[in-house]
Amino acid sequence: MLSNLFKWTASSSTRSMSTTVQAVIKPYPFSKTAIIHSEPYVPPPAPLVQGKGLMPYLQKNLTTPEKQTMLRELFGRHSTKRIYPGSIVGVMLEHAPFTFTGVVLAIRRRGIDTSMVLRNVIQRTGVEMQLFVNSPHVKNIKVIQKPPKGRMKRAKLYYLRYSPEKMGALAGSKKGTIV
Amino acid sequence: MLRLWALKHKTSLISKCLHNSSSLTAPTTATSSALTSANAPLPTKWTPESIRTGLIARKRGMTVLWNDQGARVPVTVLQLENCQVTANIVTIRQDKSEYHAVQVAASDKPLKRTTRQMQGHFRKAKVNPKRILKEFSITPDAHVPVGTTFSAIHFVPGQYVDVIAKSIGKGFQGGMKRWNFKGLRASHGVSISHRSAGATGAHQDPGRIWPGKKMAARMGGQRITTQNLAVVRVDSSLNLIYLRGAVPGVDDAQVMVRDAKKLTAVGCHNQAKGLYEKVLPKGVDDLPFPAGTLEMAKTLPSIVEAPAYRRSPFVPQE
After folding, report:
1. Quick check: B203 pLDDT over 70?
2. How far are the Cα atoms of A118, A119, B176 from residue A85, in angstroms, in the given order?
3. Which keywords does this chain's UniProt record carry (chain A) (predicted)?
4. What tens digit of pLDDT does each residue of B141-199 get?
């Protein structure tokens, strides 16, 4: 056990030394306040440099793995856990209002630019929020209630803006918030 | 506005920092034989009066980035495809003023599909044959050696650029789409001409249609300049430039990118006025001069991004 610990610390120290050598940031003299991202570990393959398959590669690499799983599971067309329009969804945000629950009126699928519109009535005022899934402010998304009978008969439920009775019927008695 | 033709009196710079490689037979140069290649070292520091060369890139598409404050920025991705210098052009006009330019070529092309004339031109510059060849006019101190390969590091995140490209062709279009005409009413007796232009002139005076009358014709497919697009991110490993906003043209089209003319002119005037803080945009301290090359990119970080130079819109104001 002790020998394992000793081995672990020795390898970690050498590993940390190698990472410090790799993590040397080259100076950028043209802008003092520019953000310098970490260098890619491997140079990109030649077809990408020629432009073949560049945009799908960027769609994958400009997002974090957590966001990619969120996009794939909640907004992928063939996912079992996908969000349907008409479901009630709660999100946790990093800026005010920090949590927002609402009915999904519309889902706009654009790869990493995917967004959804949530509608709720707060203190007798209808409030809608368009939330971009890939935004760093969106911490997590949770489905609170699925739509009645599995799915609505429309992809975009903008008619709910003018019929509060249908909104109420959708919400039912369940006024859940995510905890 | 900073005008390049106003360099009539700056003849002293020519003999010092010019390396003219375009030959006597090149049709663009008038009296290039008088100028010899210079052995003097090139000035390598950007000044507010200098105008750098631009690059030729390919528009790859649009995507979206979220900046450090979490704000969404729609971006266009441009990629440099082996963009190299093929010639330095100096022309003396009849009124003794000089025209200086850098000829840039991009996108390699198979040798057998290049004409003999162009093969000779590229052989002289010692570069692969290319699909597109364009000139960028510069000040005399911004010449770049022939054969230099450019990198995306030429642009600094935070600066502004102009993009020139051929817009998407719309075909033959009517007045409503082409000129924003209002058309006619949908009902109340209008017969068959709901989208027509209506009247095209007066009566017996002038008794004709003025030249230049806005009418239906082919729309789009023209050279368009979009000014003052901010450079959001630069990636020299894939030679990508991310610009905030939209760029004319279809995906994979060739576009010319250069420093924003109007903003650099304003910066030059601010320098003359003594407002040294307003010469370059916020956050930009210097620009690679005369150009950002592949060799320079190896010494600099690969992926550089500009932060949002404003207060966060997500933090409520007091």
Report:
1. yes
2. 9, 11, 37
3. Ribonucleoprotein, Ribosomal protein
4. 999 999 999 999 999 999 999 999 999 999 999 999 999 999 999 999 999 999 999 99
Q: Is the pLDDT of residue B98 over 90?
A: yes
**CB-defined contacts A:B, below 8 A:** 107
What's the predicted TM-score (pTM) here? 0.85
Tokens of A86: 């008409």
**Helix/strand/coil (H, E, C) string of A32-92?**
CCCEECCCCCCCCCHHHHHCCCHHHHHHHHCCCHHHHHHHHHHHCCCCCCCCCCCCEEEEE
ipTM of predicted assembly, 2 dp? 0.83
Contact list, B72 vs chain A (CB under 8 Å): 132, 135
**CB B81, CB B104: distance < 8 Å:** no
A65 touches chain B (CB under 8 A): no
Closest CA to B14 of B95, B96, B86: B96
In this complex, do B301 and A31 lie within 8 Å of one another by their Cβ atoms? no
Q: Do B303 and A40 touch (CB under 8 A)?
A: yes
Q: Report the Cα B127 to chain-centroid distance in Å.
A: 22
Distance from CA of B182 to the nearest CA of A (A): 29
A26 touching B (Cβ < 8 Å): yes
Residue A164 to residue A146: CA distance in whole angstroms? 19
Cross-chain residue pair B58–A51, CB shorter than 8 Å: yes
Q: What is the DSSP string of A3-41?
A: HHHHHHHHHHHHHHHHHHHHTPPPP-TT-SS-EEPPPPS
